[in-house]
Design a protein that fits this description.
The protein is an alpha/beta fold. The chain has one domain: Rossmann fold, CATH 3.40.50. The chain has five helices and seven strands. A five-stranded parallel beta sheet has the order 3-2-4-5-6, with helices on both faces. It has a two-stranded antiparallel sheet with strand order 1-7. Strand 2, helix 1 and strand 3 form a beta-alpha-beta unit.
Length: 142
């Protein structure tokens, strides 16, 4: 990938979902488990809880809400990427604003996706395909 960002593969062993909306969190977790049963899915409702889980059981990837209580997803991504540069961070949001997208990439996020697009993409891929700029459902790389 020309941007230097990592492709997100679903041969991952462990992911962390950082999401404060319990309904979206549960829906995303169920969707991921139905498509990729072997993945161990951790969850956190805020930045402090996410950092604690990362220290205890580092995930391969993090799906991060942009708006969180306390530190937002941008601030949290910056902290995570400073300490754990190899973890793939995907910002998930309902707000597709250019300034949010730019801030996400400046913080070190590997991808920025609308939640609705992400769910459609998850439902359209199989476990052996990567999500990258060559996937017609993927529009998250800069």
């Amino acid at each position: 990938m020309g941007s230097g960002k990592k492709s997100l593969r679903f041969d991952l062993k462990r992911i962390l979902i950082v999401e404060d909306n319990p309904f979206f969190l549960q829906f995303l977790k169920e969707t991921l488990h139905s498509r990729f049963p072997p993945i161990d899915i951790l969850e956190a409702a805020n930045g402090e809880e996410a950092l604690q889980k990362i220290r205890t059981l580092p995930p391969d990837a993090i799906f991060m809400d942009l708006r969180l209580p306390g530190a937002n997803g941008i601030e949290l991504t910056r902290k995570i990427k400073t300490q754990y540069p190899d973890i793939v961070v995907v910002i998930l949001t309902n707000y597709d604003l250019p300034e949010y997208r730019e801030a996400a990439y400046q913080s070190g996020a590997d991808h920025f996706l609308l939640k609705e697009s992400f769910l459609k993409m998850i439902n359209s891929i199989s476990a052996d395909r990567s999500m990258d700029e060559n996937d017609p459902n993927f529009k998250g790389s800069p």
